[in-house]
Batch of 4 targets.
Target 1
Amino acid sequence: MDATRSMRSDAVTVRSMAEDMSRAGADAALPAGYPGYLTIDLGALSRNYQAMTRRVAPALAAAVVKADAYGLGADRVAPALYAAGCRHFFVAQFHEALAIRPILGDDAKVFVLNGLQPGNEEPCAEAGIIPVLNGMEQLAAWQALAGSLGRRLSAVLQFDTGMSRLGLAPADLDRVQKAIEKGGLDILFVMSHLACGDEPDNAQNGEQLAEMQRIAARFADLPLCFANSGGSFLGAAYHGALVRPGIAVYGGAPHGNADNPMEPVVRLDVAVVQTRTVAAGAKIGYGGSHVAARQMVLATIAAGYADGLPRTLSDRGAVYFEGVRLPIVGRVSMDSIIIDASALPEGRLTLGARVEVIGPNQSLDALAADAGTISYEILTSLGSRYFRNYR
Ligand SMILES: *Cc1c(COP(=O)(O)O)cnc(C)c1O
């Protein structure tokens, strides 16, 4: 955490240098020492958020900024979303809430999805952070604190409607209702989470909605908070009073592989640090797992699995240069990847050139699919070694 923070502040210093060099993110010169250029388009992020609010109106849209805003930097993303009108922010961990609370306006609400952990009650109340209560013991602890402080405390009540991950058990409905009636808590939302919101045809969506409606009937005057990005595209029945999109705001496809209506937010370009021509029969990469079938022009780029490009991309994915697809050959290393640049005119790809890893030719979702994973995992794994250009 501390190491990341200090790298960030270094990056802030270098960032202004690079902005002087060029206004165009991906085309700017790469500051010395940075192997890759991660462009994060805060304008596109804000437009995605606003598109979401239009989609779900009259419901409101929160933004999920857990895991450092899906790896993109909560210190930049959360204030940008606040400026775009967002007033409800969800994080996963209490310390993530502490980090963003001071950089948002007082009218913003910050919620902790993973709930109220023992020992966090007082700091949570003191910082004005709102816990999502996921169990009877959390509810009791928060209510007890409200009693001892002599003031009302806000909370969200989450119910498990069929994911078995987080939330009060519907079997405890009577107990929950009795506890709430004792007073002390302002329940801002009754909440649940969809397990299959990204799969519109999955019958589990309807089952969870029915369960949510059954629970909601017991809390007639309380607003509901149910849908994630995928759920927000399932129709008004899923919207409740507040939706909680994450990935769609960051430009990921809300419904897996279907057409993506969101604007891309992230572009990733990585520097070439070596080129060579090898003869047929040459072994390429760790384990010698790829053997050149012909003479090949290879290039080594300066990012690997430590930079969020998973080993599952070995001999599978590709990068792009001037629109030409350059396949990954051999295994992905920790800090580098070897690509087949044979499709380019000789000498076209030189030391210091940058190839597109995520951009107009290759979406975040396409890269994730090649890696056998999801956009979420790629984004949250990008790490701290790229130069970050916020636009
Ligand atoms: C992560 C998360 C979200 C956001 O999900 P997306 O699919 O990224 O929109 C919403 N609600 C909960 C409870 C989550 O854990």
Note: The longest helix spans residues 2-21.
Target 2
Amino acid sequence: MKVYLDNAATTMVDSKVVSKMMPYFSEKYGNASSVHSKGQEAKMALDDSRKVIAKFLGCKFDEVVFTASGTESNNMVLRGIKGITNKKEIITTNIEHPAILETCADLAKSEGYKIKFLKVDNKGFIDLKELEKMISNETALVSVMHGNNEIGVLNDISKIGEICHKHNVLFHTDAVQSLCKANIDLKNIDFLSASAHKVHGPKGVGLFYLRKGLKLKPLITGGGHEHGLRSGTYNVAGIVGFAEAVKLFSGSEIKNMTRLRDKLIDNILKIKGTRLNGASGEKRLCNNVNVSFEGAEGEAIGAYLDSNGICISTGSACSSHSLKPSHVLEAIGLKHEEMNGSVRMSLSKFTTDEEIDYVLNVLAGVIEKLRKISGWKG
Ligand SMILES: *Cc1c(COP(=O)(O)O)cnc(C)c1O
């Protein structure tokens, strides 16, 4: 049996999405900026896709800006706010994705921004009072992710946005993991990043929500696409795929993924010497499991599971090639051994009970074997 439980890294493109995209590679190949019929055919598909996404997010048609990735969306917002404000202070957290952390680091180094980091508690939540205290007259932007890609914690972006707006500060959230997997209310949000390949759409397509009236400084100049914000010929097929992927979520997937997530967590925690990393229940992404095993290395667990047809991750995909401990697990205060023994399993809307049963069965054997080798007695 083959089981893919690394959907936080990327997801399979839904076959229905592929079918919807195909014509835009072949007969409907027009440039959406061309005025002739071939171009207008593509433009219509682009408009329809934008409508679908705007409706899903609950925003206006022209508040959706397409990009080439979640990473690009994050960069566009963080680097683009200088078009809105001269203030040079950004408040973020120490559990963000590298697309935020590295961008902040570069802004500090090359443009003199001051970056302030909110600490998180042992579950991954920021302290709203600390946020309120940290905001100063110089604060331009607060960027706090919605669903964390490693431990799945869902911070309360509505409350965070409310605090930001009370103090006249812009609020951005990286919602790449939570799109289609948690409810999102844009009420107090100015910018929100998302990516198609995390929701069964194609790779290389992202977007961000941009509150009407806010004028970011563009990073890419050229033909003036996306109101001059992001020039470059439209990836019509990709955007059509993104919209279709979003449309195929009905809301019921969340319930099923939550059930399977909890089945996986509950059964893993029955094995002694285990712990769940991150929050539980509703404040956790419906598809995220992150657990630590005493007496077994995450890397070894991953390798043994892989040889049994099961793909999982140790830490996040971006950091698992390095032996540096995960900055997220470090931030929630895990001890060295707990970090070493951690694995992340991330489900998708296609994950089944049979797959979870198989994983639990294989995992029990793998842990037992590794603990025998390590001499762990418990
Ligand atoms: C995957 C991911 C990104 C990056 O998105 P890409 O489209 O792969 O560039 C950003 N933030 C989070 C939380 C992610 O999980």
Note: The chain has a mean pLDDT of 96.
Target 3
Amino acid sequence: MAKFHWLFLIVFLPYHGKAAKISPSKSRLSLQWKTFNCASNPLHVSRHKCIILDNDKSLITVEVDYLQAISQLNATFKLFLPRQPFKEYHKIIDLNVDVCQFSKGLYGHKFIGVIVKSLGKKASSQLKCPRPKGLYSYPNISIADNLPGFLPTTDFKVEISFLSPDSMLNTSLSGMLYDPAKTSGK
Ligand SMILES: *[C@@H]1O[C@H](CO)[C@@H](O)[C@H](O)[C@H]1NC(C)=O
Ligand SMILES: *[C@@H]1O[C@H](CO)[C@@H](O)[C@H](O)[C@H]1NC(C)=O
Ligand SMILES: *[C@@H]1O[C@H](CO)[C@@H](O)[C@H](O)[C@H]1NC(C)=O
């Protein structure tokens, strides 16, 4: 159960913007993505790219070409962790957030704050609404740099769905947090 202590912190601490103490230098664990899949709605998105970088599997790149301007965008975030003894995945976090509020620094949740911070400054500025149609690119997203330092090693899965207001893009990711000092990964 100690394993879930950090989740308790992440789930129940509200995000306090700049006051949050997430120091990249304190991250001890490395993150490696294993799979990244996306499905888009052809009525909203002409093409998309969801890739894990070949030469650095801690990084992902997302590109979405919107066919229509975005005036409203919500997202659901789900985090799943394996639970002993059978390691079947359980949903730990399930959030619905208003993405249009992100540019105002209103993430609603610490977990989301980590993700938005990982997009980088330029990408974060692309989260304003309304937002013209066209190609949006979020290169080299590094979640690991923004994670707190007290996390346990674990496999995990994340599902993020975007709604505007009908389904626009579904993404699912799997990865692991590991200690680079102990092992080079399984
Ligand atoms: C996303 O997933 C939901 C729920 O499974 C589904 O209803 C929706 O059609 C999916 N959207 C796309 C764009 O694949
Ligand atoms: C979008 O998310 C916000 C925050 O959770 C919620 O209040 C709002 O009702 C959502 N809007 C839609 C269309 O789901
Ligand atoms: C992303 O990372 C790759 C590999 O580390 C690098 O070659 C590329 O220039 C980076 N792209 C951007 C836009 O930062």
Note: Residues 64 and 136 are 5 Å apart (CA to CA).
Target 4
Amino acid sequence: MSIGLLDLKSEYEGIKDDVRAAIDQVLSSQQFIGGKQIQELESRLAELIGVTHAIAVGSGTDAILLALMALEVGAGDEVITTPFTFFATAGCIHRTGARPVFVDIDPETFNIDPQKIESAITDRTRAIMPVHLFGQCADMTAIGEIAARHRIPIIEDAAQAIMARSGDTHAGAWGAMGCFSFYPTKNLGGFGEGGLISTNDEAMAMRCRQLRNHGQSDQYFHERVGGNFRLDSMQAAILLCRLKQIESHTRRRRDNAKLYDELLAGVGAVTTPRIAPGQHAVYHQYSILCDQRDDLRQYLSDKSIGSGVYYPLPLHLQPCFRHLGYKTGDFPVCEAAATRILSLPVHPMLSESQVRTVAAAIAAFFDSAGSGRAAAVAGRAGG
Ligand SMILES: *Cc1c(COP(=O)(O)O)cnc(C)c1O
């Protein structure tokens, strides 16, 4: 039996009737834009995240772009972020006309290294955008201190971190704004595109609401140029159903991670994820580090075990950012992680025995690794 990186079909089985009833309601109302599902989703998520305002938008990418637009980041500005993230983080910075300024990551958490932020700050720095990668918050205490000292706002890319906490504070409640994604594979996944901005700043919330709807302040009166960044009601109705699973699913992810930690502790070739003190991680991914990563991935695939590489090419080395002038060697920690990282199935539908199967396969690979395995794999690859 195969073990996938995801099992969205099984997750759906758990709420099928609920979802169908919710969709039916939207269909009967024929109110597809705005309406009570959007409002309810926004108030439920604001409460969950621990902020006063939540603004539902069309995707996580929209959330990031809108947050930057709300801060009026544009041409000539710089935004500090990590090169080890999904493309959208830096893509949105670029789309505003600003320049993404990358800073290397911490080797253990894979999140932006706060110690390297300060030297990247210039008088053009308009925001710092940490990413809570794999569902573990960046070091927000340290980043918050630096940001406060320089009076630079923080936008959190919390796309992978709904329900994650650092101390008692949730991801998305630290910065001026937090950005979430409801892409189907995220921890709170919709059945299509979706996203959200969280904030405690009333003026920012109002601005985001305006920008979400073409910058309209009154009907057909435009205070600024925004766009169509709206979430639709059907998606909101579905997300309200998915929200009922978030607590138990997060617990399942954490339990699976804990079991991997135990089972892989004895496999010397593997470094399991390090969770910093005070962090409550939600394991959007469970990512190990090892040599022979690609061979291991093939070995697992041959045994019908899914795995993922997030991310194979750091953002400072992407062809589209060539004009920024970065080169290989600029961010060695990030570059090393990109060649050694592998994410294992950790989703909430995974059974304990499946976790054991995956861990046993990894142990077996490294047991037989040495020269024999390496030669066998190399021989096959070479044809
Ligand atoms: C998924 C993701 C996004 C983008 O979200 P979409 O909903 O796919 O637009 C941004 N940043 C990170 C870190 C993500 O994982």
Note: Residues 59-61, 85-86, 88-89, 131, 157, 159-160, 181, 183, 195 surround pyridoxal-5'-phosphate (CB under 6 Å).
